[in-house]
């Protein structure tokens, strides 16, 4: 197996990134109807994406497989005005890549840990600012326009500052690990072929 990324690898990562982005936008719209439910969309996202990420990682198994999709997602989200996600997706993507590259994409446990790190980065850039940088978040959410209807934003901030904020973070960790386990079960033959089981 070649250690350098090939054109087909970049194509696969590009397709995967587009699917992740579309899924994320869909989940944001569906869960955004209710602020309390919106806090948990990263957990839902992480569970659904885990098998896809496991497939991508086990099929390519080269440096950049975790980082490149994360950077693409960060750039796309950054272009939509989500500066925090642009930063966290790149930073946590680098950390995840280091973790999984330590033994050359040969460890399932490191692959799962790297995926968890990516999803924590996603949460850190999307949900955490609601209760960590509240004033900044409100300004971003309203575009700094005075007179904006603040009812939804205020409710979102209130539920994020409640026990639901921490609960949603815990749910993300659990969902990521469960999703990775499901991915391993679904893709057992791929992992066996790669000598990771």
UniProtKB/TrEMBL annotation:
Q: Which segments does the entry list as coiled coil? A: none
Superkingdom assignment: Bacteria
Q: Which UniProt keywords apply?
A: Membrane, Transmembrane, Transmembrane helix
Q: Which InterPro entries match?
A: CHP02185_IM
Transmembrane regions listed in the UniProt entry? 12-33, 39-57, 64-80, 86-105, 112-133, 163-183
NCBIfam families attached here? Trep_Strep
Listed name of the protein:
Energy-coupling factor transport system substrate-specific component
């Amino acid at each position: 197996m070649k250690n350098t990324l090939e054109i087909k690898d970049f194509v696969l990562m590009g397709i995967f990134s587009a699917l992740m982005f579309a899924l994320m936008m869909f989940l944001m719209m569906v869960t955004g109807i209710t602020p309390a439910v919106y806090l948990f969309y990263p957990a839902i996202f992480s569970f659904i994406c885990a098998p896809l990420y496991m497939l991508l990682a086990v099929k390519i198994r080269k440096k950049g497989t975790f980082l490149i999709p994360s950077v693409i997602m960060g750039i796309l989200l950054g272009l939509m005005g989500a500066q925090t996600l642009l930063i966290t997706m790149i930073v946590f993507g680098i950390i995840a890549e280091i973790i999984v590259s330590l033994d050359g994409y040969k460890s399932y446990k490191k692959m799962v840990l790297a995926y968890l790190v990516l999803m924590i980065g996603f949460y850190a850039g999307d949900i955490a600012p609601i209760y960590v940088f509240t004033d900044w978040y409100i300004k971003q959410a309203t575009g700094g326009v005075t007179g904006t209807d603040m009812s939804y934003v205020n409710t979102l901030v209130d539920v994020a500052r409640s026990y639901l904020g921490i609960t949603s973070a815990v749910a993300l960790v659990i969902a990521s690990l469960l999703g990775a386990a499901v991915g391993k079960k679904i893709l057992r033959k791929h992992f066996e072929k790669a000598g990771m089981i």
